[in-house]
Every structure is written in C-alpha cells, then in structure tokens.
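Sat 14:20. Reprocessing the chain from the morning session after the first attempt stalled halfway. Input below, unchanged.
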Amino acid sequence: MPIHPVGTINRKGSLGSPYSISDYYGINPEFGTLDDFRHLLATAHALGFHLVIDLVANHTAWDNKLIHEHPDYFHKDSTGKIIPPNPNWTDVARLDYAQTGLRHYMIEMMKYWVRDIGIDGFRCDVAELVPVDFWDQARSALDSIKTVMMLFRGRLSGASP
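Finished this time. Tokens:
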C-alpha cells in the first residue's frame, strides 16, 4: 500500500483510498512522520533488508497540488474538465504523460525517495496505464543514483528488462 497522504476531495468512504495520493513527497500521518519512516528504513537496512514503496504514477487525488499548479499534467474531456482514469475511479484524476513537465516532476520525485530518503525501489501500481517509455526513462535516471528494484503491477509490453 502507498505510504503517502490520502486525498480528501471526492474521497470514497470515511478512510478514502490509499491510491488517491495527495502528496507524493509526504507520509500519511496515520503511519507517522518522515523521521519515523527514516528510522524504519535505517532499521530495515541494518537488518539486511531492502525497502520498496508503492508508487501510484497513473493518477492523483483531486486535492494533490499538481491539480492547481499544473492542470496541464492531467487528461481532460472535450470541455476541458480533468477526468478520472475510468468512470468508477471518481476519487482520482488521471495524469497525462504526453506532458514533458509531468515526466520531469515524477522522475524528480522518484529520485528524491531514492537519493534523499534512501529507499531501494518502487512497486508501481497500474503501471500498464503509464507509457513504457516513461518507465524506461525513470529507470535510467534512478539507476544513475543506485541500482533500484522496480516491481510492476500489470503487464508492460515492450518494456526493457
């Protein structure tokens, strides 16, 4: 499950979906603080474990700052309204990887978790809905920092090994 804060706008149920990310750089306060996470990571590493986090790269919560700061990073309908990835996922907005700025933002965010926090990789949720060339680009950028583990949920046809 993702470790990031859950969005509140269009939340499903009282808890919301952990896949409705409101801040890619944050820690869900229900799990503790960034310092708590750093302690967990240091303990895991001291015990010889690697730690990967769940990454939701296909969509964000409706109250993610990107909605307001970069509405161009999202898919829109014919009227210009930001839309979810499918009609049932009303609590999230679909990201548009045709936007170079979005790709840069997402890779920088991933680099932050690897370089600055020290995680060992990502489990990428609904990875098949994100273009394969983005994953290739991200993997190359991350591996320039350190070799990371990338687990993909779904089938990525044409992806590099």
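Residues 62 and 68 are 9 Å apart (CA to CA).
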